[in-house]
Every structure is written in C-alpha cells, then in structure tokens.
Amino acid sequence: MQRVFQALSSTARRKILAYLAHSELTAGEIASRFEMSKPSISQHLSILEAAGLIAGEKRGQFIHYRLVSENLTNTLNEFVQQVCPVSRPLKRESATLADAKRRETATE
C-alpha cells in the first residue's frame, strides 16, 4: 500500500495515469506530453509499475504501457478523476488518442 501512496503522491504520475485512461502509450508518447527528461519519465513509469498501477509490454523496440484496470486503486483514481477538473482535459486527450489508434488499426 505504501508504494501506491508514493506513486499517487506525484502530480506527474497522476497525469500519466490520466493519459493511460483510454489508451496504451509508449514511453516516448508519454514523454512528449511533459517538459521533463525521458529518464525522469522512465523513473515515474517504474514507480507506477512497481505499485502495480500500470504494466509495460515490450513490442519490438518499444514498451507499451497500460493501466492495470483490475487494480482497486486505479478504480478509485478513475472516480476521483471524474470529479477533478484538472484531469478532464487529459482524459479527453486520452480518449482522442484511443479513437485515432482504433481508426489507424482499422485501415491497416
């Protein structure tokens, strides 16, 4: 439980969770949304993964990250994000990305 609270204590990590709400993203796609170094993003991803909030899967040369939806903490975080005005634009962007990826996959 301590790891979960540590993971959620960071605004950047909460934003990463919001970005992953509707779509898998690579570390590079996540990093492009922040003004911080890629090693810093990797550290945040490692903390989220160690807490069991996200999972990474290597495909080719990229690691694709997704929420671990069966994690109770993510369920509670989803609820909080519904009422938190800061998360709404991030979740909209996540949904837009997911739609774009579905369209791209459908045309292949």
UniProtKB/TrEMBL annotation:
It comes from the Bacteria. Keywords: DNA-binding, Transcription, Transcription regulation. SMART domains: HTH_ARSR. Gene3D superfamilies: Winged helix-like DNA-binding domain superfamily/Winged helix DNA-binding domain. InterPro entries: ArsR-like_HTH, HTH_ArsR_DNA-bd_dom, HTH_MetalResp_TranReg, WH-like_DNA-bd_sf, WH_DNA-bd_sf. It holds the Pfam family HTH_5. GO terms for molecular function: DNA binding; DNA-binding transcription factor activity. Coiled coil: none annotated. Residues 1-87 form the HTH arsR-type domain. This is ArsR family transcriptional regulator.
